Each structure stands twice: as structure tokens, then as C-alpha cells.
Amino acid sequence: MKILYGTGNQGKVNAMKNIIKSHGFDAELYTLKDIEFDKDIIEDGKTFEENSEIKANAIYEFCKENNINGKIIIADDAGLCIDALNGEPGIYTARYAGDHASQEDSINKVLENMKQYTNMDDRTCKFVCVLTAILPDGEKFVARGECRGKIALNHGKLGGLTYGPIFIPVGFDKPLGDMDEEEYASVHNHRDLAMEELVKKFKELGY
């Protein structure tokens, strides 16, 4: 089984390797760098599902054009959706504070927009990840994973996932950025949940 994961983010690659291994798959994982993917993908969809599919289709077409065969393509789109902000930043999560904004700038924009909501019950949110998989024969599957939580009043330790320092998962009293490795691993994150749905499908198909 060969999986081409449409990312250049090493953290995402490592997470994908771990979940594949935990499900007992003997799979080789490739990234866009391995196939020398050099196209600009315009993500102009209105939903995570649309953007995820746009990425997957672009990679699939590139593989066809360059005779790259036999790989399952997986592409994702993910983001933070805050209930009080009508789902913002949503599909604009990566550029909410502007293109190439720092982690601190991105976090501060969220905290500024949430400052009127001082009650934690009004600060509910979720991380969403949608994965689109395209099989070598062109068949397509979509899976969605969500991790619910609340936006912290102030950010914790910076680093890691962009909004990790302000995302407090349900059942915890501190943000992801302040958790040790064991605590962090115990939180079912949105990408893992989406991947688990795809893994079930792969097993049904006999992979």
C-alpha cells in the first residue's frame, strides 16, 4: 500500500505515519516533495470539503501527467471554527491575520475578536479536518474529524499547532500548547479522527 500525502508539513507526516502504524497497515508514505510536485493550488472552495477535494484533484492530475501510478492520494483541509464568530476563522484559518502572519499575530486576532465573551461557556469552538482520498482507479472518499473545545482567555506557551496555545479541548483545563506529550496524545485530534474513517474504508476495500 502506497500513500501520497499532499503536504510538506513534517508534523502532519509524522502524525499520519503514527496512525497508519497504529492500525496495522504496512504502508509506504510519500509526500509532495518525493514526487517533485511544483504546482500552485488555488484553494477557492467555500468549505473544508471543497478545498480538500481541490487539492486532491490537483495532485491526482499531476500524477497522471507524470506517470506516477499506484498510490492512494490523501489531501486535507483543516481549521478552527469558533461558534461566537459564526464559524470564523474557518477555511481562512491559515491566513486569518493576513498572509504569512506570525503565530502570535494570528492568536492575538482571535483573542481580540473574542474579548467581549468573558464567560467560558460563550467561547466554544472546534478544530475540523477533512481528508479526501483518491484511489489509483480514481474512486474518491471523504472523511471529516472534529475536536471540540473552548478558546482560552489568554494564550499559553507558543509553538506547535498555530492555535494550540488557545485551544482547550473538552475535558481539560489547559490549552494544547501547555500539555505534555502524554496528555497531548490522549486528546483525539481532528486529523486522527478523520484518518480513522479513511482507514475503515481502506480495510473494507481489502487494503
Structure, described:
α1 packs across α5. The protein starts with a strand and ends with a helix. The chain is built from five helices and six strands. With 207 residues, the protein is an alpha/beta fold. The chain has one domain (2-204): Maf protein, CATH 3.90.950. The chain is globular and about 55 Å long. The model has no long low-confidence stretch (mean pLDDT 92). A hairpin with a 5-residue loop joins β4 (124-134) and β5. Strands 2-1-3-4-5-6 form a six-stranded mixed beta sheet.
Offer a few descriptive terms.
six-stranded mixed β-sheet; globular; 30% helix; 207 residues; alpha/beta; Maf protein
Contiguous uncertain segments of 5+ residues: none
Relative helix content: 25-40%
Helix and strand sequence: EHEHEHEEEHH
DSSP strand tally = 6
Spatial gap, N to C terminus: 7 Å
Structural class: alpha/beta
**What's the overall geometry?**
globular
What is the fold-level CATH name, i.e. the topology?
Maf protein
What's the story with the biggest beta sheet?
A: 6 strands, mixed
Major sheet: order of its strands?
2-1-3-4-5-6
